[in-house]
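Methods: holo model generation. Sequences were used as deposited, without trimming of termini or removal of tags, and paired with ligand SMILES retrieved from the corresponding compound records. Each pair was processed once, and we did not select among multiple samples. The sequence and magnesium ion SMILES for this entry were:
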Amino acid sequence: MIILQHIGRYSLLIKRAFARPEKHKMYYFRLIREMEALGINSVGIVAIISFFMGAVITIQTAYNTENPLLPTYLIGLAARDSILLEFSSTIVALILAGKVGSRIASEIGTMRVTEQIDALEIMGINSASYLILPKIVAFMILAPFLSVLSMVVGIFGGWIAGVSAGVVSTADYVYGIRFAFIPYYIVYSLIKSVIFAFLIATISAYHGYYTSGGALEVGRSSTLAVVHSSVFILLFNLILTQLLLS
Amino acid sequence: MIEVRHISKSFDGEQVLNDISVSFEQGKTNLIIGKSGSGKTVLLKCIIGLHEVDQGEIYYSGNNFTAMNIMDKKKVRQKFGMLFQGGALFDSLTVEENVRFKLDMFTGMTTREKQERVDFCLKRVNLENKNDLYPAELSGGMKKRVAIARAIVLNPRYLFCDEPNSGLDPQTAILIDKLIIEITEEFNMTTIVNTHDINSVMEMGDKVVYIDKGKKWWEGSNLDILNTDNEELNNFLFANKMVRQLKNINDSRQ
Ligand SMILES: Nc1ncnc2c1ncn2[C@@H]1O[C@H](COP(=O)(O)OP(=O)(O)OP(=O)(O)O)[C@@H](O)[C@H]1O
Ligand SMILES: [Mg+2]
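and the model returned the structure below.
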């Protein structure tokens, strides 16, 4: 019952968020700000994590396939597929749920408890659309770029690690990366990243928007935002994999 | 002119407002007074439509605000100026951007015109050379003044202030009160102020409404208060023994 209530309130909020913006110029201005705050500031963490995960995936694949019958280029191939299929979209989304989700929820939650949202409403501004829409759009635009960044850096990290650990040669790794390459995997991954971005932005905004109380509740909203975003990312990962790959 | 007719409001079965009717006149500073927790903030929020009332209606210049659809409500709200109990300045914007906000959202003014208007409003509240500071860098009194400047930037017809001088020293508090009275007269606004500060009552009570436990118990002007024999109101306003004695002396003289 409570879940249905949440879903109902969430849907209404999202519907309100997609109303026509009051003033387009202000909206673009906010969109740029949000793209900077949500996307550009996430480049660092995505790059670092992708580099190390790429490295670990490569080395683990190498040690698990230490069989003279298996060609070493399989290492590159396995690393590529794990990175493209799951890592660059799902795992990166989970990390961003922590970083971006908590940021969105605490920003909007703070505005709620300090009556800034009431102040917007009293001015005759649709606070949902003013606050939430630019975040959704900004994050959905930037998520595919973060995903591509993660692919590139992850594969690069795998190469550095594989070569320096002496488990694969550059030639074999590159051959593996290009072997039986299915471009659709990239499309698949980008579609997932856009949908995950929508989930993170809207779920976190929802928790922030319906915060009531004080600073303590803002903290709780931001935790809930991260937890619920993560759960829904995993759930939708399953659904999307079925829909897009089967 | 704002008319409140028979409004009631409860939260989760707990009655906070009980059949309140009162009217607030244009060009005057109207006060709502009452103890902490008596329902002042809830009443004000019902009047401006942040809370939906369970019963009753609110009329703005004769138009039924309660029955309006969202678009019409928005239009009325654009004539509102509101001062929240905590200021509610936008943290992420500077003082200047806060004041300019409504101009950006609702007008087609040029950058220069906006700048002039912002400077005028900030000057009006005696706050100059603070344009580029963020709300977190201001003192409590400065925040209230920025909030007033933001509230008046579009020449509102209705001004609402929730405890405009709570947490301020008596002198600054009186300055803020004076400012509210002056701009009310200057721009011929209908102003409603929530307060439990006796100084404010004496300073600006063209009309005073006393509420307690969600009911209206008394209304009149600040001069009437000096002569009232309403026990509740006297106990509330003249809680201090010394002040009470002064009033008694005043009463016995008459
Ligand atoms: N959103 C809400 N949900 C439930 N109860 C509320 C809500 N807002 C206010 N109340 C209750 O309504 C009553 C009146 O609160 P209100 O904030 O109007 O008091 P007040 O007169 O403004 O007090 P103060 O002078 O301390 O600001 C309180 O008992 C409060 O608990
Ligand atoms: Mg209050």
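The two ends of chain A are 33 Å apart (CA to CA).
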